[in-house]
Structures are given as C-alpha cells and as structure tokens.
Amino acid sequence: MVQRFYRRGAVMPGNKSEVGAIKLSALDTWRGAYHPDIAAIDIGATNIRGVVLSKEGKLSQVARSPIDSGVDSADFVKLVADFAQYLEHWNSPGGHQPSLLVVALPGIVDEKRQELIGSANLPWSDLNWVPKLSQLLMVQVRITHDVRAALRAEVETGFLNGCSQGIAVSIGTGIGAGIVTDGRVLFGEGYAGEIGHINVGSDRECSCGAIGCLETVSSGPAISARYAEGTGKAGLEATEIAKRADAGDCVASEVWKQATDALALGLQASCSVLGTERVVLSGGLALAGQRLLEPLTQALERSLSFHKVPEIRISKYGDLATLHGAILEGLLLNQ
Ligand SMILES: [Zn+2]
Fold this sequence. Notes:
Layout: H1 2-8, E1 12-13, H2 16-21, H3 25-29, E2 38-43, E3 47-53, E4 63-66, H4 73-86, E5 100-105, E6 108-110, E7 115-118, H5 130-137, E8 140-145, H6 146-157, E9 166-171, E10 175-181, E11 184-185, H7 215-218, H8 220-231, H9 238-246, H10 250-274, E12 278-282, H11 290-303, E13 311-314, H12 321-333
Parallel strand pairs: 2-5, 5-8, 9-12, 12-13
Antiparallel strand pairs: 1-4, 2-3, 3-4, 6-7, 9-10, 10-11
Helix pairs in contact: 4-5, 6-12, 8-10, 9-10, 10-11
Bound molecules: zinc ion.
C-alpha cells in the first residue's frame, strides 16, 4: 500500500524546513520526558499530513498527501490507514508501530465523548469511521479538533503559555479558533470557537449554508476566488496574492484588505466577548507573516475602543501547529 502511494505520487515527505519548524526543542522541555510511539495525522479539507514520534523520541519528517474531493467514506478510511502506514517510523526496524494515533479534524468535534458531530469542509458523510480506522490499523485511535490541537501547542509550549485569556486562530480552507478563558480551554461540547461563521456582512453563501460568514471573505479559497474574479487568474494561493498586494497589484490589494478587515471584525467580536489578551495566528494564511500581521493588527486596533487591545503574533509553528498539538495530546494521554 505504501507503494501505491508512491505510484500515485500522492505522498511527499516534508522538506527539511518543515521538519525544522516542528523540531522537538519545545517537546524536549515539555514536562521532562518523551513517551514512545505516537503518531499524529492532521486531516484538512484538501490534504492530509502526518508525523510519528518514535520510541527513541525522534520526530519523523512531515508527510503529506492531497485528498481527492470525490473520495467516498469507505475509501477515505482506507486512505487514512494507508497514509498512516506510510509514515516514517510507523514500522521501525525493531518492529514497533505507534501505540496511539491522534487524528486532528476540522468541524464540530467533541473530544470528551470522542465524537465527530459534523463538518462542512470534509468530503465524506460517515462520522463513525474512527472505530473502523482503529480496527484496520490495530492501534488506539483518538480524535481531536484541529484548532484546539493547535491551541494546545500554543498553551503548552507557545505564545499562549501562561496566558489567561487567549485565542489561537487557524486560517486556511476554513477559519476556526481555539479559546482559553480564565486559563481553561473552552470546549462548548465541540461547538466553541467557530469564528469563521461570524457574519461580517458579506453577500456570499458559506459552505455552512449561511450568508455573510467570515470564511466567505478571509479563508484561503475565498481570497483566491475573489482575486480570480477580478483578474481572471484562478488557483493562486492566498499568500501569493498577499505578495502581489505588496508589489502594488490593485486587485490583490483590495482583496487582501477585505480579508484582513473582515478578520479584524471577527476578532473584534471575540475580543469584546472574552477580554482577549493574546491572539496567535496559524494555518496556511499565517505563512503570509507580516503581510497578514500588520494590516490585521491595525484594523483590530481601529475597531476597539475601551477594550483590552490584544497582542497578536504569528505562530512559531506556522501551519504545523495542529500536528505539534496532536503529538502533545498523545503525550498527555500517555502520562
Ligand atoms: Zn458559515
């Protein structure tokens, strides 16, 4: 099955810089010790990524594979199982395989009950595939919410460490937030943190069925689609459009301004409710770095009056915060 991935060219090992971004420096100091054999998989709307923490405490390279949007539920379970077995260290020379697989998912995930309640951005309908995956792989499988996994990385070893009121915002195909309030992670039975579906006044229909959601303006696909409408150039990454905005492209500038202004609106609503002190940004859009941070910070500062003005940073984990947090979650479970 590994060969099948190779033949299809679907799986590409992560490059060195990605591995560098998820180095164990933070895990190394985290509560003192490694625990062996934990794998983490981050399932997005368009691709799947994974790493394994080996028995020796070595983190594998990040592997990734695109997901065919036409895949049905049964094939999807097989695809995830095949992908897991492809991961470096899955079967180490000593014959070990991970004892625990943590799968991070977008959507409504109730971690306490271990239930996927629903997801607007996933290409299958069977929500009960985790037991099947566990059976196929013969390992314990645990699901977690992708953004709350990223939040865990920030709380344990990142910008939100020691923070009482913080938000970790992931911006990619969807937009979601992990929330810390009074020093505790807010779960809301899986429903907390859906800032991507705050109405920011857009006239477009969202993947959730509502009109006007933040995701229709500021998600990666929304930015790409809006730029294509203005220029006829389809399929560009949002980070490329940010670069073009910087270089003086008028359409790119307008699209990027709409996106960052709408994000500021979403954050303003969250900060007003929660008294947020720190915001950390991850996901594909966070790779835009200062091009995202500066206009967003300025727009948010303009929109706040008597409120606390939060400090905003780009996550040190870039778009790998979820994988990092999922490994940490596995470590916590094995304590
Ligand atoms: Zn929506």
